[in-house]
Amino acid sequence: MTDGRARRQRVRWGNVLRALVLLALLPWTAPGAGETKPLWEIGFGVAPTTFPDYIGSSRQQTYLLPLPYVVYRGDVFRADREGLRGLLVDRPRLSVDVSLDGAVPVSSDDDSARAGMDDLAPVFEAGPSVNWLLYQDGPVRWRIRMPVRAGIAVDSDGIRHVGWRVQPMLSLDLRDVLGGWDIGISAGPRFSSRAYQAYYYDVPAADATDERPAYRAPGGYGGAVLTLSASRRFDSLWAGAFVRYQNLAGARFRDSPLVETRHAVMAGAGIAWILGRSERQVPVSDGR
Fold first, then answer.
1. In contact, 215 and 255? CB cutoff 8 Å
2. Tens of pLDDT along 172-185?
3. Among 53, 174, 210, 281, who pairs with 106 as Cys (CB 3.0-4.6 Å)?
């Protein structure tokens, strides 16, 4: 495949991944317990977003992305304020679902720290998340969430596994507050396998320079993450926003020459118009 075709493919996969990350991070509005809602709702909007090239990169990119609004309230597969997920276990205080995340592609030609190195392919992440309900009273819900995700890189050379990530989180959800907004706050450490951190932070001897010495990234602690989100549903309009901050103080790979900053911010806001909904109504509870 020519360099031009490979670059176009990387851009296409990158746009798909950014849209999936938006779906995973922008919180669709949650219904209250005891209500009935349409089985599905669809819409479309736009979302300005900003992402670093990779965690630790000083290069920040801004995009205006299309935003699909997708809500599906099925018994097994759901798309809602928890993101895109497949529900595996659903009990009053314990649930297990499939969670998604990802990282955008990076062209090393455009990132000075990686100049001359291989490009970073888009990485899709998926895996089970175990969720424990600690406390719930009215609009307030405290949970511990434990997602375990496999990273899959997709590029012109095919599909390959690039390691694992684990991110335990303490999560606070506030429903219908501040004039009708749903607020989410979560925080916790992030851990990655040696293979995952090597994909982003290793510097092979062949790529070493006087300014960029060879480096082998260990696995383990990868920094602390704080995520804030807010959303509100109007009659036929949805609005939402998120900010995710990651601090790399103490991260095992912090001495990599590819780590230019110990702070990373990902943020976005979106507005979507609801274009259609099913006639079939289903009973809902918090989280469905």
1. yes
2. 999 889 888 999 99
3. 53
In the chain, the amino acid numbered 274 is: I
Residue with tokens 């997920």: 85
Would residue 45 count as lying in a domain?
A: yes
| Distance, CA of 190 to CA of 262 (rounded, Å) | 14
Degrees (nearest 5) of the Cα angle 189, 193, 196?
Answer: 100
Q: How far, in Å, CA of 86 to CA of 80, rounded?
A: 11
Strand (E) or helix (H) holding 165: strand 158-166
d(C-alpha 107, C-alpha 41), whole Å: 36
Q: What is the CATH number of the domain that holds 17?
A: 2.40.128
**Cα-to-chain-centroid distance, residue 35:** 29
Return all residues near 11 (Cβ < 8 A) that are at least 6 apart: 105
Q: Is residue 131 part of a domain?
A: yes
With respect to residue 86, please indicate whether it lies within any of the assigned structural domains. yes
Token digits of residue 256: 């990599």
Q: Which of 149-163, 186-200, 252-266 has the lowest mean pLDDT?
A: 149-163
70 near 23, Cβ under 8 Å?
A: yes
* Residue appearing with tokens 């390959």: 160
Please check whether residue 168 lies inside any domain of the structure. Answer: yes
Q: How many domains is the chain built from?
A: 1
Structural domain containing residue 130: 3-283
Query: Sign (positive/negative) of CA torsion 255, 256, 257, 260?
Result: negative
Q: How high is the pLDDT of residue 1?
A: 45
Please give the distance of CA 222 from its chain centroid, rounded to a whole number. Answer: 16
In the chain, the percentage of residues whose pLDDT exceeds 90 is 54
Cβ-based neighbour number of residue 151 at 10 Å: 24
Question: Residue 147 above 60 pLDDT?
Answer: yes
Q: Among residues 173, 107, 100, 161, which one has the least CA distance to residue 134?
A: 173
Element (H, E) at 5: helix 3-25
